[in-house]
Amino acid sequence: MDKLLSLLCGHRSFPDGGAAAHFRLLLSDRGEAADPTITPQQAFMRLLDHHFDGITMGDVVWHSRWETWVRLADTFRQGNVFLAGDAAHVHSTTGGQGMNCCMQDAFNLGWKLALVLKGYARPELLDTYEAERRPVAEQVIWAASSLHDIFMTHGKDIGQRTRTMFDPGYTEKVVNYCSGVAYTYRDYVQKPADLTELNGPAIGDRAPDLDFEQGGALFDRLRHEYFTLMAMPGDCDRAPVIERLQRRFSRVLAVETLPRSEALSKRYGATDGRLFCVRPDGYIGFKCSADEAHLLEATLEGVLTI
Q: How far apart are CA 222 and CA 283, in angstroms?
């Protein structure tokens, strides 16, 4: 556990006698800041005296003591009670990942609850909430703690931290983690053992967006209430397969036949007529070639009751 002191102080030191300057100071420390017997101002002064000469503080306008806890619930579900957001996991605020993680908990659980409560899906679908989200919470805790170590850890050489921050790809990795797009369910979703592996984004990955050369974005085609079947362009005859799936799952499955597009081919793999079933939360629930559409149908039948 770290303790972070935040202190706002004013100091009139300008030669022209102008208005007071206000400074916000942050102190992350397991020593002085963690000592409950001294005031935050005393903790700051001891730190300033240790590192600088001739600096004094004026009146303290506001101060607080903030503690960083790392906690993860053993289970996210007990009967009809579900934990989500900060009730299920807490971590350092470094990187601002908490809000995205909490919203993804809600997205993941929300569509599953809706399908089950409407009688469209089997109750076992709700078991996948913890199976998918708890591992992601573990990853978020690791990522937040890693960023916390870079920016706030004591005793770690500043040169070592600087080298880490300037490693190739570090900024992109941080952005992907902080935005939440790097987290995936690919290791936690069930797939048929005989399903052929295809290139491109995997089952359990977040479906990536793109702009079509003809205009419009892919995400504009995914604004359906439940599942979206994306039929990639190709020369094979997929019409009978698509019609059967659409007829079988008409209440919960919308079909989008996508145009030929270089951007689409680059993001989703070869334009060979493959099928992607995108979940209501924007993650890929299944993908297969048109020849293996029966595996998609069997997977949906195992989850849905309609």
A: 11
